[in-house]
Amino acid sequence: MCLAVPGKIIEIYDAGGMKMGKVDFGGAVREVCLAYVPEAVTGDYTVIHVGFALHLIGETEAQETLAMLREMAALEDEIGPEKAASQ
Amino acid sequence: MSEVRPSQLGGITATKYISEYRDAGLVKGVIAEIRRTVTRPWVIMEICGGQTHAIKRYGIDQLLPPEVELVHGPGCPVCVTSLELIDKALAIAAQPGVIFTSYGDMLRVPGSSRDMFSIRAAGGDVRVVYSPLDAVKIAQQNPDQQVVFFAIGFETTAPPNAMSVVQAQALGLSNYSTLVSHVRVPPAMHAILSSPENRVNGFLAAGHVCAVMGYWEYPPIAEKYHTPIVVTGFEPLDIVQGILTAVRQLEDGRCEVENAYPRIVTFEGNRPAQDVIDRVFVECDRKWRGIGMIPASGWRLRPEYAGFDAEERFSVGEIQPEESPTCIAGMILRGMKKPHDCPAFGTLCTPDHPHGATMVSSEGACSAYYHYGKA
C-alpha cells in the first residue's frame, strides 16, 4: 500500500487550481498530482504514491549514501571479511 | 553493475534511484559489515508490509547472520482494517445506486459472509481505482449515483485521500463520500513495545510514512522504551543499511532515531501534506484487526466534512462480524508469531482461499511467505 515509485517530472501545469504534472517512470508516463510538492520544477525527481508526489528526491543525500556504502563494499573486497573483522 | 534480481516494479523498467539500490555487490558489503558488528541475538521489526515483501522477495532474511531475526509488523492497511468496517463496506456496496470504489487489494478481503466480487456478481457496481482522484472523477461523471471511496491507509495514503475530499468539496459534489479507515504508525509502536509479550529490540520505521510525517514523533518512543528506530527505505540496499544502523545502535547500547533514507525523508516531513491531513482529519481511537482497539491510533473526517462521510450517509443496520477461528494474523502483526506457526498456512489458507487479510494483501506477511518461499 505504501509503495511509492521514483520518477522524473517532465511537465507541470495547472488543472482547475491544482498543480498537476507528467512524470516519467523509466519510459512510462503518467499524470500525477503535484499539490504536495509546491517547490517542484521540471526535471526534479520525486516519489509517487497513488497518483501523488509525496516528496522530492534529494540527489546530494542519495549520492552521499551510495558513496558511504561503496566504501564499505570496497573495504570488504580489498582486505576480505576475516581481516575487515579485526579493523 | 550486477543486481540482486531483475529490476521490475509492476511492469515499470529500472530507472534512476531504483537500480543502484539493487546492486548485489553493495548489498553484500553491508551484510558483511552486519556480520562483523553483531555479537548477540537481536529481534528487529520492519513496520511496513512493503518492506516485508522486499525482504522475502530478495531473500534478505536468508543473508543475515543467525543473530539477527526479522519479525514483521502491522504496516499493512488492508490487514488491519477491522472486519466490522469491511462488512460495512460490503453492505454499502450492495445498495442500489452506489458505485463503490477502492484500491485493488481491499476488494479481495473476505467479509464475514461475502466479498466484493460476490457483490459485483450480484449486479453491484464495484470499481478499482489507482488514485482517490479517479474516484472523484467517477463522481463527476455519474451525478445520479452515489460514489463511495474506501479510504484506507497509513500516513502515506492520508494526504491523497484527504485531497479527494478537498477536491470534491471544491467541485461542489454532493454524491461523493469516503469510508475512512486511516491508521497511524506511532500508536501501534507504543502498543507493540508496551505489551508484556513484546520481543522487539529495534524498529525499521516505514520510509514513505516518514516522507509525509517526518520522524519528529519518534524520539519520545525510542527514549521511553529504550528502542532504536531507524527510518528505512524499500530497496534491498535501503533495507540492509537500515538493519546495519539498528544493529550498530543495539550493540552500542544506544536507542536513537536515525534516518537511513535521507534522499526521501527529512525530520519535518512534508508540511503541505501534513497541513491538508490536519484540515480534513482528526485523531480517533481505532480498532485494528487482530490487535484490538489502540487509543488515538486513527484518523476520521472532521465534523465539518461530515457531508463526505459514508458512515453518516448510509444506514447499514447492525453489523456482527465473525472472524475465522483458525487465523493467527493478530499474533503475526504484533511480531509474536510467524506465518509458518499457523496450522492453516499454505493448506487451508492460501491466496486463493484466504482465511485472513495477511494472506490476501500484497503486503501481508502470510502472502509474502507463500509467494517467496517456505523459509
Structure, explained:
The complex is a heterodimer of chains A (87) and B (375). Chain A has 87 residues and is an alpha+beta fold. Chain A has two domains: 1-56, SH3 type barrels (Roll); 58-87. Helix content of chain A is 31%, strand content 40%. Chain A has one helix at residues 59-85, and strands spanning 5-15, 18-25, 28-33, 45-49, 52-56. Chain A has a five-stranded antiparallel sheet with strand order 3-2-1-4-5, with no helix packed on it. The longest helix of chain A has 27 residues, at 59-85. The radius of gyration of chain A is 19 Å and the shape is elongated. Residues 82-87 of chain A have low confidence and may be disordered. By secondary structure, chain B is an alpha/beta fold. Chain B folds into two domains: 27-323, 3-Layer(aba) Sandwich (Rossmann fold), CATH 3.40.50; 324-371, no CATH class. Chain B contains 18 helices and 13 strands. A six-stranded mixed sheet of chain B has the order 6-5-7-8-13-12, sandwiched between helices. In chain B, α8 (132-141) packs parallel to α9 (158-170) and α9 crosses α14 (271-280). Chain B is globular, with a radius of gyration of 21 Å. Residues 1-14 of chain B have low confidence and may be disordered.
Put the structure in a nutshell.
Chain A is built from one helix and five strands.
Map the helices and strands:
The complex is a heterodimer of chains A (87) and B (375).
Chain A (H helix, E strand, L loop, with lengths): L4 E11 L2 E8 L2 E6 L11 E5 L2 E5 L2 H27 L2
Antiparallel strand pairs in A: 1-2, 1-4, 2-3, 4-5
Chain B lengths: L7 E2 L2 E2 L10 H14 L4 E7 H9 L2 H4 L4 E8 L1 H4 L2 H11 L4 E5 L1 H4 L8 H6 L3 E4 L3 H10 L4 E8 L4 H13 L5 E8 L1 H10 L7 E5 H7 L5 H7 L3 E4 L3 H17 L4 E3 L11 H10 E8 L3 E10 L8 H4 L15 H5 L23 H4 L4 H7 L4
Parallel strand pairs in B: 3-4, 3-9, 5-6, 5-7, 7-8, 9-10, 10-11
Antiparallel strand pairs in B: 1-2, 8-13, 12-13
Helix pairs in contact in B: 1-13, 2-18, 8-9, 9-14
